[in-house]
Amino acid sequence: MEVLLSQSAAAMPDLQTVFLVALLLFAGLLFLGVEIFVLPGFGIPGVIGLLLLAGGGAAAWMFLGSCWGSVAVVVTIGLAIALAVTGFRSKALSRRLVLDTQLKQGGGTESQDLKKLVGATGIATSDLRPAGIATVGDSRIDVVSEGGFLEQGTHIRVVAVDGPRVVVAKITE
How many domains does the chain have? Predict the structure, then answer.
């Protein structure tokens, strides 16, 4: 009877092992926090943090047993998710990740400039499959053919402009 009791009772892990596992997991979360809040991206602190978390989880399973290992891994994953959510909700991080500059009116290509091309003729500078490049007047523009494939050098006419999309058709003699 003594043998059964000693085999079924879980051995209490020593305090140094618990401290080592907790230190590995905490250091992993700390490095992930540095990666999220201080150096956004996927760099060396993030890789080190993931390795420390994996090592801490493996150490928890090996030295503390499957029950405490499971608890340590689930708690660590929960804390890592909470850290990531907090990081992505913070204004400081969003200012670093999101471009907030805007083009002034007329700073880029606008579709109003292209509307005047309707009815103009030109030549397909590249094969249109159905998209390609054409020269209309003295402008080189991206176009889409209305009827499918057109070879390079085909004479075309602009039949429609829909926003930045310029639709052309082959000129039939």
Answer: 2
Nearest to 146 by CA among 132, 161, 130: 130
Question: Which of 68, 60, 67, 70 minimizes the C-alpha distance to 28?
Answer: 60
The β-bridge relationship of strands 165-170 and 139-145 is: parallel
Quick one: 32 and 85 in the same domain? Answer: yes
Q: Is residue 161 domain-resident?
A: yes
Residue 136 pairs in a beta bridge with 122, 139
Torsion, Cα of 92, 96, 99, 101 (10° steps): 70
| pLDDT tens-digit map of 84-134 | 788 777 766 666 667 777 766 655 555 557 888 888 999 999 999 989 999
Assess contact for 117 and 166: CB atoms under 8 A.
Answer: yes
- Write the pLDDT tens digit of every residue in 34-59: 887 787 666 888 889 889 988 888 88
Contacts of residue 60, defined as CB under 8 A and 6 or more positions apart, other chains included, come to 21, 25, 68, 69, 72, 73
Assess if residue 6 is contained within a domain: no
In a domain, 7, yes or no: no
Residue 65 structural domain:
13-97
Give the CATH number of the domain where residue 133 resides: 2.40.50.140
pTM above 0.90, yes or no: no
